[in-house]
Amino acid sequence: MMSQATRSLRMEMGWSHLTFGFVPSVKMSFSTSEDDLGVFKEKPQKITVKSVARYALVFMLVAVMVASLTTFVVGVFTLEAEYGSRVVSGLVGEGMYQVDSLMMISAGAGAILVSSLGLCGVLCKNKCMLGLHLGILAFLSITLLVAGILGYIFISELEDTAKKSMIDVITYKYGVNTDRNRKHNSITTSWDSVQRSFKCCGAYGDENSTTSWYAYRLSSFWFQDNFSNGSLVPKSCCEPNSDMERCQGHVSSNAPPSQIPPVINSPVNYTLYTTGCYDQLEEYIQQNGIIIGTAAIVTAVFMLVEMILGIIVHRSS
Question: Which residue, among 277, 276, 259, has the nearest Cα to 268 in the 3D structure?
């Protein structure tokens, strides 16, 4: 017969076996695995179209900001350069030749701000900011494309338009009522500055042309209405420190400006500039148009690429 103590011990062991398993026969072992210890490892992110588009958009935003800054600088340079679009506008008496540069300045400054807005929207994952950026960007990209196209159109139509405008300005505006007409005074100042700097006189042509130095005497109100005080050409058409009386025609001679074209067989007046200003300025004006057109179109293309990436990111957000 079993004792009461033995019977109680067996009952306790049986209860333990039912609850936890047969503990005495199991060997305890400890795992060093990070998974078993509960250490959370960062899972590698999968490369998706959305993530690629986001990184590409950030890159394009930075590129557009740099391109926009370049566009802004080019706009200021072509407007304010010594013989930029502001001077050309003064020569031809038309403000339209400044429009391209002004469009570039405005669009470039706006694009810098809008690209900054887009960059904040992407980094902060703000869908509203990104959408606003895309809407304004569409308008600015169109503006820059127009500016670029106008720059190249300006080059293609430069010769005929500029030459005609220069003749009209010399005929009707140069030196006429400059004390009472601020526009005529500004035009006259621009012409005098260019004629001195480029050593030219009149619109275009050489010493035998009626549209260069002889245009003042032939058709200008400056000469016909006696605003010239008897001078046949402006003082700015003469070499500095030369004999101005002879150069301006106050002293009669058998050379320009006293002698009318053609003057091939006549002695040349070396104190008088006889080449028209368009011929001297043509290269500078064309370079301005090329710079404006190229910078504007390249920046606009960058903006269009950025806009496509922005739409992808916006729709997938």
Answer: 259
Length in residues, the chain: 317
At 250, the amino acid letter reads H
Determine contact, residues 307/137, Cβ cutoff 8 Å: yes
51 backbone dihedrals φ, ψ, rounded to 5°: -70, -40
- Per-residue burial over 205-235, b if 16 or more Cβ lie within 10 Å, else e, is bebebbbbbbbbbbbbbbbeeebbeebbbbe
Of 2, 6, 282, 304, the closest CA to residue 160 belongs to 282
Beta-bridge partners for 238? 272
Per-residue model confidence as pLDDT tens for the chain (317 residues): 455 555 554 454 444 444 444 444 444 444 455 444 444 344 455 566 667 777 888 888 888 888 888 888 888 887 776 666 676 766 665 555 677 778 778 888 888 888 888 888 888 878 888 888 888 888 888 888 887 887 777 777 667 778 888 899 999 999 999 999 998 998 898 899 889 988 999 999 988 899 999 999 999 999 999 999 999 999 999 999 888 988 998 888 778 888 888 876 655 677 899 999 988 888 877 777 787 788 888 888 888 888 888 888 877 76
Q: Judge if the upstream peptide bond of residue 257 is cis by omega within 30 degrees of 0.
A: yes
φ and ψ at 239, to 5 degrees?
A: -65, 130
- CA dist 258 and 145 (Å) reads 50
Are the C-beta atoms of 147 and 275 separated by less than 8 Å?
no
Phi, psi angle pair for 171, to nearest 5°: -70, -45
For residue 252, the 8-state DSSP code is -
CB 202 within 8 A of CB 169: no
Structure tokens at 102: 């002004």
Please tell me whether the overall predicted TM-score, pTM, comes out greater than 0.85 for this model: no
Residue of 41, 178, 165, 29 lying closest to 97 (CA atoms): 165
